[in-house]
């Protein structure tokens, strides 16, 4: 089973309870695998994808919004790689138009936008839901290839969309969560992509795909061990000294905070980081990641540890 399929399964198993997030997820799915149908009665909507679980999720969300469960049709479709099975939902104008209006995609009588409105993804939770929908509909994740550096080629998360406007919108939503992607045209489509493993890790956190994040961290660690063996042998003593020096500074800060204010003074995710560092004083950042209750990327963990040192320094200042 591919990593992308595993990530999508993890995302689709999540519950989407807030109505604003249901709309945002559907707006993302529409961007990735939706099309509009114009008929005498008005504007209809078609959602079609090879991922049956995605279409079931969309049907469930539509049912929660409209009170009616849409039918799912299984059909064969001729594609570039041959005939494939796809799953489809068709909504008539009476059902689709109000939903499209609430997303800002349709403005009666004839206004049609290429993307949802910014208001649809105004809140961080809605940004995440939109990206979940568009990734499950049109995303892929590759962690293959041999590499000399863990942050180099061999890692790729991308979303393939049919219009430039929808690609730029998805990129803007992603950037709104602190992850800046690249956008490139490819044949008649547009690609929103990440190549850096830390950025991919940060996005997986936003998508709630913690299982995939652990997989990514393990792959990075194992590839680093395999590909950097010779270089690491030469630098091993220096690296250990650097890790121990950093760890010692972090442990001093943690001990000071505990003495002055107690670890409960820290936010929950920082307290988890502090307790984990104290439990594994000699561990590298990569090793430390495996023991956290609140997962993050390597850069995120580094940021947390710096924040703990900063808080200790601030407490020292107050006591001077």
Model description:
The chain is an alpha+beta fold and 320 residues long. It has two domains: 217 residues, Endonuclease I-creI (Roll), CATH 3.10.28; 91 residues, no CATH class. It has a four-stranded antiparallel beta sheet with strand order 1-2-4-3. Strands 7-8-10-9 form a four-stranded antiparallel beta sheet. A two-stranded antiparallel sheet has the order 5-6. A hairpin with a 2-residue loop joins strand 1 and strand 2. Helix 7 packs antiparallel against helix 8, helix 9 packs parallel to helix 12 and helix 10 crosses helix 12. The longest helix has 32 residues. It is elongated and about 75 Å long. About 2% of the residues have low confidence.
> What would the principal axes of the Cα set say about the shape?
elongated
At the fourth level of CATH, the homologous superfamily of the largest domain is Homing endonucleases
Uncertain parts = 145-152
Q: How many β-strand stretches? A: 10
Mean pLDDT: 87
Q: SSE order, as H and E?
A: HHEEHEEHEEHEEHEEHHHHHH
């Amino acid at each position: 089973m591919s990593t992308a399929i595993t990530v999508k399964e993890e995302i689709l198993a999540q519950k989407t309870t807030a109505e604003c997030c249901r709309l945002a997820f559907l707006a993302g799915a529409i961007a990735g695998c939706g099309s509009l149908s114009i008929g005498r009665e008005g504007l209809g909507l078609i959602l079609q994808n090879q991922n049956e679980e995605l279409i079931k999720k969309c049907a469930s969300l539509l049912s929660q919004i409209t009170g009616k469960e849409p039918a799912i049709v299984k059909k064969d479709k001729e594609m570039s790689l041959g005939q494939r099975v796809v799953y489809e939902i068709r909504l008539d104008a009476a059902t689709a138009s109000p939903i499209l209006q609430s997303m800002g995609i349709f403005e009666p009588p004839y206004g049609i936008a290429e993307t949802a409105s910014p208001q649809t993804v105004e809140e961080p939770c809605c940004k995440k839901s939109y990206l979940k929908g568009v990734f499950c509909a049109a995303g892929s994740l590759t962690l293959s290839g041999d590499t000399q550096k863990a942050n180099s080629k061999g890692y790729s998360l991308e979303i393939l969309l049919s219009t430039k406007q929808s690609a730029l919108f998805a990129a803007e939503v992603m950037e709104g969560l602190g992850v800046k992607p690249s956008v490139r045209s490819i044949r008649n489509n547009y690609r929103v992509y990440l190549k850096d493993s830390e950025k991919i890790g940060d996005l997986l956190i936003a998508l709630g795909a913690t299982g995939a994040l652990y997989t990514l961290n393990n792959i990075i660690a194992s590839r680093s061990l395999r590909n950097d063996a010779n270089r690491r042998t030469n630098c091993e003593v220096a690296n250990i000294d650097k890790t121990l020096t950093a760890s010692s500074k972090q442990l001093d800060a943690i001990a000071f905070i505990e003495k002055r204010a107690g670890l409960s003074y820290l936010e929950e995710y920082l307290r988890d980081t502090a307790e984990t560092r104290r439990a594994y004083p000699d561990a590298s950042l990569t090793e430390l990641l495996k023991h956290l209750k609140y997962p993050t990327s390597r850069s995120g963990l580094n940021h947390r540890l710096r924040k703990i040192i900063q808080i200790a320094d601030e407490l020292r200042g107050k006591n001077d």
